[in-house]
Amino acid sequence: GMGGVGKTTIARAVFDQLHDTFDGGCFLDNVREAASKFGLQALAEKLLSETLKETKDNLYTSTNLLMNRLSYKKVIIVLDDVDQDEQIENLLAGGHKGFGAGSRIIITTRNKQLLSAHGVDQVYEVSLLGTNEALMLFNKFAFKETKPMGPFEELALRVVKCAWGLPLAFKVLG
Question: pTM for this structure?
Answer without folding.
Answer: 0.79
